[in-house]
Amino acid sequence: MITSKIHAIWSRELNLAEFADTDDFFSLGGHSLIMTRIQREILSELGIEVPMDQLFRKSTVAEISEHIESTLSAA
């Protein structure tokens, strides 16, 4: 569920219909302004604030989803 929501957010913000969950954000044309919008959308849709440094370090949908799931399970 989290992965599909993150994928949908990326799809909207990057204006891409198809990409793999393991594709790198920056290779897909992402940059800091788009990442800021993605951060805001994650908070809005999932109620989870992911720090910007984590979004830049974990630059795939799969990595961000894993980070969010581990954060939720630790809470």
From TrEMBL:
SUPFAM superfamilies registered for this protein in UniProt: ACP-like
Protein name: Acyl carrier protein
Segments forming domain Carrier: 1-72
Entries under Gene3D superfamilies matching the protein: ACP-like
Alphabetically ordered keywords of this record: Phosphopantetheine, Phosphoprotein
Superkingdom classification of source: Bacteria
One annotated GO molecular function: phosphopantetheine binding
GO terms of biological process kind: antibiotic biosynthetic process
